[in-house]
Design a protein that fits this description.
Length: 101
C-alpha cells in the first residue's frame, strides 16, 4: 500500500478547548511527521473552535463529555481505491465476463 498525502485537513473542536491547546496539538502533529501534506499546500490545517459543550441525545448510550474533536480531511488515498477497482474491471473485461453484445 502506497503512502498517501493529505490535501487539506479541517479540525473542529467543541467544548472547553482553548486556542493554545489547539496550537499545541497542531504543533505536536507537525513534529511527529506522521501527517504529510502535498507539496502544493504548505499550511493544510483549518481550525474551528466552538465553546459550547458537546450535546448527546437521551438514551443514546454515549457518555457525557466536556470536549470533543472531529477531523475532516481530503487525501490522495482515494486514488488507491480507484486503481484497485480499475484493475478488477480490467480483469473482468479481459475475460469478457458480463459482456453480452
Amino acid at each position: 500500500m502506497l503512502p498517501f498525502r493529505y490535501m487539506s485537513c479541517c479540525l473542529l473542536y467543541r467544548g472547553d478547548v482553548s486556542p493554545s491547546m489547539v496550537s499545541n496539538s497542531m504543533r505536536t502533529i507537525r513534529e511527529m511527521k506522521s501527517v504529510q501534506f502535498v507539496d502544493w499546500c504548505p499550511t493544510g490545517f483549518k481550525v474551528g473552535i466552538n465553546q459550547n459543550k458537546p450535546v448527546i441525545t437521551p438514551d443514546s448510550g454515549m457518555a457525557s463529555v466536556t470536549r470533543s474533536a472531529c477531523m475532516l480531511y481530503n487525501s490522495s488515498a482515494v486514488a488507491q481505491s480507484w486503481a484497485s477497482t480499475l484493475r478488477h474491471f480490467d480483469m473482468l473485461m479481459h475475460k469478457r465476463a458480463f459482456v453480452h453484445w
